[in-house]
User: Which sequence fits this backbone?
């Protein structure tokens, strides 16, 4: 099978709000026309501030949230058009790791039940060898085998996150959405989980969509980054160029917002003020223009197309060529 | 890769249930209520085997008007010469039985309707919840009056009626629980693994709603004992000669002026039992849903 493992084309997720029998209500455009591809073994970072649609995008790829439009293909198979039986089969290939390890494990089920259910649902292994598989899975994520007979509340946040990862791995997926898997953890634990994900990618050839807002974690773990703002892709590039030579003012603002250990050095920064606009009524044209220091009248007229400015580096900004953002 | 914090000792299962039991046992009124209910249950089930009279056996020495309390008849006799204590104990069997089974029906019905409503949302939810509203707005007594003109009240029918009239609160509660729990990440994780609706509902959501449901079920026992007693008191429930606490009270009311000892025991039984049930319910709530 040649071609990318995962293809996303023009994905849209809209939510109707305030609709009643008598009035039509409005539409939240959580994800608007997002396209990207992901190779086998590749880690794509998804960044953007709160409310930019990162989580919704991740979930709509797995159809945990139904996309309103667009196509998702996994290994050539159309995920968006899959019927219930096909979708069930796809669930063993596409998995998810959640942000909050305290909410993502059923408190009434032992670890053995949690992992065993996943194996059972996809008929992995016979009844007899599931015990051995569960032990192997736990060891794979760095937990001892006897953890199987414990309940989630007996574990720390980092350990719970490992159980969540084991659950995602149990069905042998090729692609995992990691929805801010370290945001709820202590910094010291974050490094362990990030390293675990990195090892798994290397050893199992997993592809990851890593959602996060810690840019240093993204830089360490990911091959490529997708910058999302109000549900739209602002910029996508390999990690190196994106960090050294961002082309979109929003990417630059995100990078500038991260603290840098540079004693004495005064930086020229783009500082965003205010909140992300409401996705109920996004600005016309470029959605970022209301907070962009380089905005001009033309930005309000049409949605800027994502265009390639360097190999593998695309940006959706009218002025990408004239403004220089690299000087930092 | 192996980096386990030392806080994890070797296996020793401590389930959340154990903690709940410990919390319940510290709740004095709930424990008192539980002891009372267990004692009442034992008396009602086993005492008839030790009593010398049957509930409809008459002592012709005391016929015509109520007999006073005596060594033979501890709680006196009614106007037909039947032993009041015996009838009280048998009445407890019926009242507690109807109360318990009515609560079971109410809980099963309420949980099923609430679960489907909260899980599927949308049109199903709207239809079921409007039906619940309709049921809530039907005045109970006129409905029961109407039913009693068509059917001769039997214990089974009464259980059905009681259960069918008090499930609405449980349904609303369970619906709210399901609406909240279905959005939990562990439910989403199960969905991401391809779990079907039934599995999500019964394996992932329902076990986590057991706390509030069992509280509601306990309180429903109190409500259905009250309702059975009320209906029997008004003559629409279980009919004499089968005694229940409710119709004993009804029969005694005619003699309240001259023989108050007939009315007080069944009234006290209803009062104390319902109170005990509510204490237990409160204790369960505190034990299963620690909010503080």
Assistant:
């Amino acid at each position: 099978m040649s071609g990318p493992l995962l293809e996303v084309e023009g994905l849209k997720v809209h939510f109707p709000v305030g609709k009643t029998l008598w009035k039509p209500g409005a539409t939240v455009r959580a994800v608007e026309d997002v396209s990207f591809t992901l190779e086998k073994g590749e880690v794509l970072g998804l960044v953007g501030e709160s409310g930019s649609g990162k989580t919704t995008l991740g979930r709509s790829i797995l159809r945990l949230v139904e996309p309103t439009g667009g196509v998702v293909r996994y290994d050539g198979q159309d995920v968006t058009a899959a019927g219930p039986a096909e979708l069930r089969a796809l669930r063993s290939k596409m998995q998810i790791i959640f942000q909050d390890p305290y909410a993502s494990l059923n408190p009434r089920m032992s670890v053995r039940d949690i992992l065993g259910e996943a194996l059972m649902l996809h008929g992995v292994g016979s009844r007899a060898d599931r015990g051995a598989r569960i032990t192997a899975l736990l060891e794979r994520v760095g937990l001892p085998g006897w953890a199987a007979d414990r309940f989630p509340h007996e574990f720390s946040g980092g350990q719970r996150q490992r159980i969540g990862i084991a659950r995602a791995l149990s069905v042998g997926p090729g692609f995992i959405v990691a929805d801010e898997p370290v945001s709820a953890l202590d910094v010291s634990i974050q490094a362990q989980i990030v390293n675990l994900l990195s090892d798994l990618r290397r050893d199992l050839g997993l592809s990851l969509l890593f959602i996060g807002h810690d840019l240093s974690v993204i830089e360490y773990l990911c091959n490529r980054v997708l910058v999302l703002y109000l549900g739209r892709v602002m910029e996508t590039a390999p990690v190196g160029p994106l960090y050294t030579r961002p082309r979109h003012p929003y990417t630059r603002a995100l990078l500038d917002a991260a603290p840098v250990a540079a004693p004495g050095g005064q930086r020229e920064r783009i500082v965003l003020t205010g909140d992300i606009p409401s996705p109920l009524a996004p600005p016309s044209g470029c959605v970022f223009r209301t907070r962009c220091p380089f905005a001009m009248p033309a930005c309000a007229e049409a949605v800027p197309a994502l265009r390639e400015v360097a190999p593998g580096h695309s940006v959706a900004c009218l002025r990408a060529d004239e403004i220089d953002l690299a000087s930092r | 890769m192996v980096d386990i914090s030392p806080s994890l000792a070797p296996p020793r299962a401590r389930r959340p249930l154990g903690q709940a039991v410990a919390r319940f046992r510290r709740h004095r009124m709930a424990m008192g209520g539980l002891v009372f209910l267990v004692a009442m249950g034992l008396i009602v089930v086993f005492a008839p085997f030790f009593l010398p009279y049957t509930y409809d056996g008459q002592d012709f020495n005391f016929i015509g008007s109520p007999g006073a309390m005596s060594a033979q008849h501890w709680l006196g006799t009614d106007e037909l010469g039947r032993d009041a204590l015996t009838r009280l104990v048998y009445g407890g069997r019926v009242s507690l039985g109807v109360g318990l089974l009515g609560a079971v029906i109410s809980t099963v019905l309420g949980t099923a309707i609430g679960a489907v409503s909260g899980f599927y949302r949308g049109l199903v939810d709207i239809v079921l919840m409007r039906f619940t509203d309709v049921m809530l707005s039907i005045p109970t007594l006129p409905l029961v009056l109407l039913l009693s003109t068509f059917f001769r009240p039997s214990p089974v029918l009464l259980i059905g009626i009681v259960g069918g009239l008090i499930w609405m609160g449980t349904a609303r509660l369970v619906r709210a629980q399901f609406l909240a729990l279905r959005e939990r990440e562990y439910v989403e994780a199960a969905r991401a693994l391809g779990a079907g609706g039934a599995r999500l509902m019964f394996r992932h959501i329902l076990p986590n709603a057991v706390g509030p449901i069992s509280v509601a079920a306990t309180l429903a026992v109190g409500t259905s004992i009250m309702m059975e007693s009320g209906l029997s008191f008004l003559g629409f429930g279980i009919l004499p000669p089968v005694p229940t606490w409710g119709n004993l009270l009804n029969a005694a009311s005619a003699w309240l002026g001259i023989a108050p000892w007939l009315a007080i025991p069944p009234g006290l039984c209803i009062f104390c039992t319902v109170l005990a049930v509510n204490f237990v319910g409160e204790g369960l709530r505190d034990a299963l849903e620690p909010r503080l």
In short: Chain A has a mean pLDDT of 87. The radius of gyration of chain A is 21 Å. Residues 47 and 256 of chain A are 14 Å apart (CA to CA).
